[in-house]
């Protein structure tokens, strides 16, 4: 597959042919959103099939309803599911659009070079496409070793392709949800409590008396269970404290909104810790019994007074005091929320350490209204042979850096792919499943550099995302509504399992990921790792190990199991051992000290925007997930582009008018591909701008998403790497406004 | 029997789940909607307030749309719900012009369409789709004549308002403030 140059291929160039190829597989009267109104569909039938949602990572369980002709009509939450309590979020409800999207990938594609050197995609049969993949992987194994392959994944398919790669002899399995998202939080909590937060986070929001959100915009990020519980907490009169330079939806629900100067959160956190210790507002019994390093912490935060923090954060000292007291009054039913996407400034693990420490001082870890003790169903894997040990992994390319990272770094895999003098093995083959790396990873140029060094790039997706244009082989996956998948096994207040089964046959020539992985395994001589005949047999086997069955799960969708390891909260005076070096909650981190990092968090100032530039902040909209929903017909109907939020003072200075289209240019001279409309609003600080992530797609085949809004990822070229775990801090970028695309002066 | 809805602006996050749930429940074509989100920002940074409202037909007691309908397509049914009989509607649009809440739209199939409080669901003892799906549980629906209904109880407990009361339509969607 080695092409000298890997040109981006627009899948649109074959769209006509692709449609023809798929058309005969269309069943009659399939609704086309552009032509046939929904109303032509018959009323909903009574047959429902179980699923869990794949539109985001929360994986809410629900029921798919079809009309009497078998067309998928609506998806409704499963009442027994503790992730959603019978209520899906707009993305889950709009999941039908993922199935009906006429821009879906429809058939396998293989990159070919014509006589003129022009590279195009050729439609292929599954057998042919998988042959190319299997041969490409075998060639890499022969020339470089099996460990020179990697999987980048975000979604249910990760397990099957992970099994395939591990069986093949590679341990390079990374999800951008770690180093581009929640990684620093996990490392910080592991350092403090000996365990990470995982997903969904065990925050006991429904019973909290005080919820502290630091840059976390619950309600705009629709982490379903948490949004539901925040609403419950509002009902019960809980205090919400929101720290955000933007007046977020959550800020508007808060008793205290702290409009902090961006990039100074750690100063505020240290000041809160200072106040809680100096005023003896901490939980003395809890700190005495469970924690290590209190005296060092006390000394460390002595100088971090609210007056000191005021100068940095612009939050008034009396507000810092009042909010600290509010937290202490609510303790232990208080949650200083760790957030989720926390890769901001490169010292994120230390900021999250401060969050973890603050929670420990308030005694909220393991307490009602704080953090509960989660449990997860223990379901054995379907039997398979043991995996071989890979000869090397991505870590060998890191020169011993990021040893505290507990999961693989997607950017680490990327770096290990780019040739450098010090490595004898570079990653030569990627399988990319369900993640659009072009918009997911910051520093697009680096991603493209890595992609150019590959011998084989296989993309498995449902949509022609930008990443597919760089693939050697594109494998079209069917949507979650058309396939079986692994049982959903996630932590929660009670352990449970949820079933996803196909509501209908796959449209077009698309296949489930498990099928693709098994077929590939067969071609690669690794069939033993996928020993089941039918995938659903493996589910039935697994379910029988926990006293259920596939038949039962088809009826109930979700099975809640009894807790096995004790109560939801620590009992009064209970002895606890934590999985840290000292067996205690480490306020002072011995693990960080060993690795040469600050054992207690230290505030360091971050770069500020130069004159005429504004810090680029980005976030979520409740009806979209990353860049993956930007073409979903139901969800684009709710929001079809992003806008840039600009403070009225800034707008006046630049002469901007509401709705005007501008280009954004960042500190490195990168100009957004597309213009973005200006939203003039008091809800944003004068020193920053804000936009929702996931828009500004440049792949024309995404007919509803193409050219709508601007891509924040494109403008994130300055990446602040966390020295502790390799997270990619993305909030150190500054943008200014351009009124024309062409740059007059390149900076 | 008098159906009504109360929507808690203190809890609503404006996620628009009610909009998409209504679309899939009631086969509302993409590009149209029977309910929608309004967000009102007040103040200057950093003294700010936002009110977020999920809006829809107010199922008024004194509905201008019913009064002005030349064919009788717009009518009341049990519980005060305002409905449109599709085959009687000639699509003249008088009701659209008369509604102070802009709650009606012309369906591409040639009739005027709007919120029905999901009366097909109510008949089965279910909540309207928007109420049933709302992740924040900010919507309450029920019979105002029943003092024990969710909507009666919450209206007794909380301060509330209705939209454009000066229009004299006596709306039956209330906003808890």
From TrEMBL, chain A:
Pfam families the UniProt entry points to: Molybdopterin (PF00384), Molydop_binding (PF01568)
**UniProt keyword terms in alphabetical order:** 4Fe-4S, Iron, Iron-sulfur, Metal-binding, Molybdenum, Oxidoreductase, Signal
Q: Which residues form the 4Fe-4S Mo/W bis-MGD-type domain?
A: 46-103
Recorded GO molecular functions are:
4 iron, 4 sulfur cluster binding; metal ion binding; molybdopterin cofactor binding; oxidoreductase activity
Ranges in a coiled coil: none
Q: Record's InterPro entries?
A: Asp_de-COase-like_dom_sf, MoPterin_dinucl-bd_dom, Mopterin_OxRdtase, Mopterin_OxRdtase_4Fe-4S_dom, Prok_Mopterin_Oxidored, TAT_signal
- At the top level, the lineage of the source is Bacteria
Its family remark reads: Belongs to the prokaryotic molybdopterin-containing oxidoreductase family.
Q: Which protein are we looking at?
A: Thiosulfate reductase/polysulfide reductase chain A
TrEMBL record, chain B:
Keyword check for Iron-sulfur: yes
Q: Which GO terms describe its molecular function?
A: 4 iron, 4 sulfur cluster binding; metal ion binding
Q: Which UniProt keywords apply?
A: 4Fe-4S, Iron, Iron-sulfur, Metal-binding
Task: List the Pfam families hit by this protein, alphabetically.
Answer: Fer4_11 (PF13247)
Top-level taxonomic group:
Bacteria
Residue ranges annotated for the 4Fe-4S ferredoxin-type domain, each copy included: 3-32, 48-79, 80-109
**What name goes with this protein?**
Fe-S-cluster-containing dehydrogenase component
Specify the species. Mangrovibacterium marinum
